[in-house]
Amino acid sequence: MIFPDNRYRQLRAIQAEDFHTCFYCGCIATEFDFAPPKAHWQSYQYRQLSADNLQVPACKECVALLKPCTMGLVQQRREWVHTKIAAKYKKAIGVYLKWNEDELEELDFSLHHSIAAGLKLGEESHRRSNFQGFSHEIDGSKVADVLPAAMPIVLFDKQFDSLKDAILYVCKNYPITQPKLVERLAEQGNNIEAVVMEIQEEQEVAQFQRQLKIQSAAFAKKHNQSARFVSNEVERYLDKELAYSIAEALDLLYEERVKHYR
Ligand SMILES: [Zn+2]
């Protein structure tokens, strides 16, 4: 029997389905977390730091991950634990984001086995590290019906419920593979819009290079020059005058450098 510590108010779920649920990650709660930790309660009082003074249902793993955390607000403690879960299960979350269920059947036995396990663990860890709590009451009075919702994933004018949905959409519509996209997301702090803008820029550059090659080769053939000379010249014109198109640069090249010397 644990006696309630009256320095802390109790945070309790309102809906039956949330009873015994960890407020931080959604797993089964078997213990309590204290915001701030009991050992720091007094120091928060003396220093008049902002603290929730709440006793929060939590799972064993979250309590363990929160051991070094001295923060006094539940929201801060949630962010702490989410960061820790995301780091601890980084590999599995990577599998979950890079692979899809329907790819499993093509794999050989051992790869199938490890990817399937990674997908399951990764999905769970991803969900836990984004869990936003449940409607609750504090010392018997209801706090709020509306929870701080997880930030929706926004990509230009589209919204996605999960990062994985957004990843699948991007892979379907842009020239990038799922593993590559996930790697680049990690580099960009999961900002999918930033990654897509990079991809669009790269597409433009590639498109330009293709056009430069095609048009320079045609010009070179027509005027009996080397294609390399032509494309170098075009790039020089374009460096000087950004507004020129490849065709305009080729016209100039013809006027200024080719025509008179023939
Ligand atoms: Zn938990």
Structure, explained:
The protein has 262 residues and is of the alpha+beta class. The radius of gyration is 29 Å and the shape is elongated. The longest helix is centred in the last third of the chain and has 32 residues, at 192-223. The strands form two sheets. Strands 2-3-1-4-5 form a five-stranded mixed β-sheet. Strands 6-7 form a two-stranded antiparallel sheet. The protein contains ten helices and seven strands. Among the domains are: 9-89 and 129-147, no CATH class; 205-261. The protein has helices at 41-47, 60-65, 74-88, 90-98, 109-128, 163-173, 178-187, 192-223, 227-240, 246-258, and strands spanning 9-13, 31-35, 54-58, 136-138, 141-144, 153-155, 158-160. Helix content is 52%, strand content 11%. The structure holds zinc ion. This is HNH endonuclease.
The bound ligands are: zinc ion
Roughly how many Å is the radius of gyration? Answer: 29 Å
User: Could you estimate the helical fraction of the residues in percent?
Assistant: 40-55%
Q: What is the 3D shape?
A: elongated
> Main β-sheet: number of strands, strand sense, barrel status?
5 strands, mixed
- Spatial sequence of strands, sheet with the most strands: 2-3-1-4-5
Uncertain residue ranges: none
Question: Strand tally, please?
Answer: 7
Total of helices: 10
Mean pLDDT: 91
Structural class: alpha+beta
- The ordered H/E elements are EEHEHHHHEEEEHHHHH
End-to-end span in angstroms?
Answer: 100 Å
Q: What is the strand content?
A: 5-15%
